[in-house]
Design a protein that fits this description.
The protein has about 400 residues and is α+β, with helices and mostly antiparallel strands. Among the domains are: about 70 residues, no CATH class; about 200 residues, no CATH class. The protein has twelve helices and eight strands. An eight-stranded mixed β-sheet has the order 1-2-3-4-8-7-6-5, with helices on both faces. The longest helix is centred in the middle third of the chain and has 30 residues. It is rod-shaped. The two termini are about 150 Å apart.
């Protein structure tokens, strides 16, 4: 094909440059040359090419040079028949588009439950059988043997120590929290008719209670008045005086009210002694009972109001002489035993003195419902003053 194209281009260029009568004879006929001949009114040489049916070879048929045109032929070849062009083939009809088949419906999702159910139906086995088979076919996990290191014991000891320390810390924290939040034990609210400086609890009855009061008298009072109360002093069925079980007349004991009174220790002029404040229901009955009790009262209360200790003869004589001189000068009763009427702080009292004229005990009324039993006039005056102050403030 390259040779054919080259020959066609060469002939075209030669035809354009060389006159027709001088153009060399063409040995190869082309479609372009035939068309050009027809357009000029000539008849192309349609004689078949006598030669090999194969394509011409450039070596066998060399192209003639443009400078040496070949001699024209003496006799023109017979006219060849004009070739007829083959009719243009009609286009094939397009095939109609075929509708695609409908998509196949998706199969239901396969799950482990469906596989398991199908497997049971195929094998005709129960659930327990399938589970047992799966368990038997499962690979056995290899048991790993742990090698104990040299520090395992140390780690265990440290862990135990930390646990013990943590438990101890939690216990201490709980104990401190419990101590801080525990309810405070409040002392029973014992009501006293006078102002007191301190309080002390005593217990027992009879002689045991009397001994407890004596011991309290020997301990210094932080102030002037110390309140003595029983454990059940807040109840209405007991107080210190009634708990002593003294052999007093019944008319007196029946009229003593358990509430409203008190027992205590008073410190006046450096001397401490017990005292009683009794709330009575009837002045006349209690006074009558006290008068009938005067003959045995010093002995009944000797444990709480004991006689003074005996002194030397010189001291006794000196005291007796001084007492006689005082009696002669003031007109006061001389030393004698038994209760005598006296006035202390503008209140009538009954005083029991010893042979030396010292007061062992006295009693008197602050008002119609309050009876006081004390050691001497100094103690009685202090109690009366405190009663007046407490009532005025109340």
């Amino acid at each position: 094909m390259r040779y054919y194209k080259y020959q066609m281009d060469t002939n075209a260029s030669v035809a354009n440059d060389v006159p027709e009568e001088e153009q060399p004879k063409k040995y190869i006929r082309t479609f372009e040359s035939d068309m050009a001949t027809l357009q000029k009114g000539g008849v192309p040489d349609l004689a078949p090419f006598a030669g090999s049916s194969t394509a011409p070879n450039a070596a066998d048929h060399p192209l003639p040079a443009a400078e040496t045109p070949a001699a024209p032929a003496q006799t023109p070849p017979p006219p060849a028949a004009i070739p007829t062009l083959a009719p243009k083939p009609e286009p094939l009809p397009r095939p109609e588009p075929v509708a695609p088949p409908p998509p196949a419906k998706p199969n239901p999702a396969e799950t482990y439950a469906s596989d398991f159910s199908d497997r049971m139906k195929e094998a005709n086995a129960s659930t327990l059988t399938v589970l047992a088979a799966e368990e038997d076919s499962a690979p056995r996990a290899a048991q790993k043997t742990e090698q104990k290191s040299a520090h395992t014991g140390l780690y265990v000891s440290v862990s135990v120590a930390l646990l013990v320390a943590g438990a101890a810390g939690v216990y201490l924290a709980y104990a401190r929290y419990h101590a801080n939040t525990a309810p405070v034990a409040i002392a029973p609210a014992v009501v006293a008719p006078i102002f007191v400086d301190e309080r002390e609890q005593v217990s027992g009855t009879g002689s045991v209670l009397a001994n407890a009061i004596e011991q309290s008298v020997t301990r210094p009072v932080q102030g002037v008045v110390r309140l003595l109360y029983l454990t059940n002093a807040t109840t209405t069925d007991n107080n210190v005086f009634l708990a002593l079980n003294v052999p007093a007349p019944d008319i007196l004991l029946r009229n003593v009210d358990a509430m409203g009174g008190m027992a205590g220790v008073i410190n006046v002029n450096g001397a401490q002694s017990p005292f009683f404040i009794l709330s009575v229901a009837s002045y006349s009955d209690t006074f009558a009972g006290m008068l009938s009790w005067e003959s045995t009262m010093p002995g009944s209360l000797a444990a709480l109001f004991p006689p003074y200790a005996n002194t030397t003869a010189t001291t006794t004589a000196t005291t007796t002489q001084a007492t006689k001189q005082k009696t002669a000068a003031t007109g006061a009763p001389g030393p004698q035993q038994g209760f005598q009427d006296e006035i202390v702080s503008n209140h009538d009292v009954r005083v029991y003195r010893d042979a030396s004229g010292r007061s062992i005990l006295l009693y008197g009324y602050w008002n119609q419902s309050t009876l006081i039993i004390a050691r001497n006039s100094a103690a009685f005056s202090e109690i009366v003053q405190r009663l007046a102050t407490s009532r005025a403030q109340g």
